[in-house]
Specification:
By secondary structure, the protein is an alpha/beta fold. It contains 17 helices and 26 strands. The relative contact order is 0.11. The chain binds ligand 0RQ. Ligand 0RQ binds near residues 293, 362, 406 and 413.
Length: about 500
């Protein structure tokens, strides 16, 4: 695997992860690559976690701050959280141990739009980055870094950190070289220029990132795949949601509002989003394109089936089976997949220009179309907003999907008022549950409430929602504000009831 470091003098920097951990000190801020379980370092986090455990055993303090692209995996976020080695984390996570640390108040977490991360790094809002830890496929003869299965904020991580540790993963297909499109010139206003992505598959940069070899303090070799779990076979509820999304897109094509190849698709993480992609395999569209942040199994299979022409993403997040299909077909896929920095994959300017169809999952929506993607019962952080807001605000269509209930029916995903706001009623265009779909375009709040309650809510909760709305309408007449009727003291009572009794339904 030393062949992957093609720059002769850099070969002298090869060492073990434990040796490289000498560069990580208590209190440092780290920029670490990783995006939805792809492209994260496999060895350094454990070495840092061990260093933290040793320090803690001696009664010494040891913790670091960590800014990634998005979520990583148990052997990155998980081991660091378990060792209590993190005091700050941004911008997105999904690891159970880390999530518990955040919700216990032990780890400060900044949850933010992914398209804002690199700009905030450049502006120094996180302070100085001491070390960047970057997973890579190779380093070229000229010292260019070839990223791994994900780029995320990797370009800015390398540029902003004082020192760089590179993990070269020999398990990655060497064929990844050529798939990346590194464009690092977004800059800061007032000197910004248009980003020249005019078509979803435009290449605007280089395949590798030029890096000052002196900045690289260590190169560590690993040989392990990204830890991505299998997707569940789409269940009945996911299939019903997927079928409605596809019927709706077909309807828009027939109405002349979308071309037969649709517009570039973005799809969020999770089983429902993957089920929609699976459903597109048999849908009456051709020459689809993707402009997304994370490309999962469903989109890969659309490309392999020649239903999708090309896709652009910042990370490839595959189940083990899909990874095998990807590696086997990498020559075919090379001119069909582009990996970009997340500042480009999630860029509002580009998303707006391309007219991306954004489709994301939610925790809950309220009767007026506000969406909560992040907080359970208003206080408990789930994962984070990730890129959902980038695509919701700027997409041509913004679709939210969810089962109509959670936790065996004890929670309604349609509530009087969301317990936390991520996407406002102004941004959300469609809500889809297995019960039906609400098209909110061109509708006033009261029209939206009727559609969402009638079409999307679960029958167990429908009458409760109608009752809430009717009483809110009467009460709001008295208070002189009937534009968006609410009973302020009751609006969040469903959540409070769940906290107290474990069920939103009235017993
Ligand atoms: O809980 O894990 O304990 O079983 O939330 O729910 O239905 O499996 O759906 O995996 O798609 O996740 C919004 C969290 C949905 C995700 C969210 C509980 C439910 C279950 C998972 P368990 P499902 P998903 C691209 C775009 C924000 C970021 C984003 C997310 C668990 O999609 O993080 O979109 N989105 N990024 O039981 C209490 C409710 C609930 C609820 C679901 N109303 N109340 N619990 N759950 N609804 C990627 C990036 O940006 C990087």
């Amino acid at each position: 695997s030393i062949d992957r470091v093609r720059h002769a003098t850099l070969r002298e920097k090869v060492m073990s992860a434990d040796e490289a951990a000498q560069f990580i000190q208590n209190g440092m801020m780290l920029a670490v690559t990783g995006f939805t379980g792809a492209g994260y370092p496999k060895a350094m986090p454990t070495a840092i976690a061990n260093k933290a455990k040793d320090a803690h055993a001696k009664g010494e303090k040891f913790s670091v701050g960590m800014v990634t692209g998005a979520s990583t995996a148990p052997e990155c976020d998980g081991v660091l959280a378990e060792a209590k080695a993190l005091h700050f984390r941004s911008p997105f996570q999904s690891d159970p141990t880390l999530r518990n640390g955040i919700n216990a108040g032990e780890i400060a977490y900044q949850d933010m739009h992914l398209s804002h991360v690199e700009q905030q790094m450049r502006q120094g809002f996180y302070g100085k980055f001491d070390v960047a830890i970057v997973e890579a496929t190779a380093i070229t003869e000229n010292g260019e870094l070839i990223f791994a299965m994900g780029i995320g904020h990797g370009v800015e991580a390398v540029k902003n950190a004082d020192k760089v540790i590179v993990e070269i993963n020999a398990a990655l297909s060497a064929g990844l070289e050529g798939m990346h499109d590194i464009y690092g010139d977004v800059g800061l206003p007032p000197h910004r220029k248009p980003i020249p992505v005019v078509g979803a598959f435009d290449r605007i940069g280089t395949t590798g990132l030029a890096i000052d070899p002196n900045k690289i303090v260590a190169i560590v070799f690993t040989n392990a795949g990204d830890r991505n779990s299998k997707f569940a076979e789409p269940d009945d509820i996911s299939k019903r949601i997927a079928a409605q999304v596809i019927d709706f897109l077909d309807h828009e094509v027939k109405a002349g509002r979308l071309p037969k190849s649709l517009l570039p698709l973005q799809s969020g993480v999770g089983n429902v989003a993957n089920a929609v992609m699976a459903g597109l395999l048999d849908a009456p569209f051709d020459d689809l394109t993707g402009y997304t942040e994370v490309l999962q199994d469903g989109m890969l299979d659309l490309i392999l089936a020649k239903k999708m022409k090309t896709a652009s993403a910042t990370a490839l997040s595959f189940s083990p089976d899909a990874l095998a299909r990807f590696n086997e077909n990498i020559e075919f896929l090379k001119d069909k997949i582009i990996l970009r920095p997340m500042e480009i994959s999630n860029n509002p300017e580009v998303i707006r220009r391309l007219g991306v169809i954004g489709m994301n999952s939610m925790i809950e929506a309220d009767i007026y179309g506000n969406v909560n993607s992040t907080h359970v019962m208003g206080t408990r952080m789930m994962n984070g907003i990730g890129g959902s807001g980038d695509f919701t605000r700027n997409g041509f269509f913004s679709i939210y999907v969810s089962p109509s209930t959670a936790k065996g029916g004890a929670i309604s995903a349609i509530v009087p008022m969301v317990s936390h706001h991520d996407h406002t009623e102004h941004d959300v265009m469609f809500i889809v549950t297995e019960q039906g779909m609400a098209d909110l375009r061109g509708k006033s709040p009261k029209e939206r409430a009727k559609l969402i309650i009638d079409n999307c809510s679960h029958p167990d909760y429908r009458d409760m929602l109608r009752d809430y709305y009717d009483r809110a309408f009467v009460a709001s007449q008295k208070s002189g504000g009937v534009h968006t009727p609410h009973l302020l003291l009751e609006a969040l009572s469903w959540h409070q009831r769940f906290v107290e009794t474990g069920d939103m339904r009235i017993k």
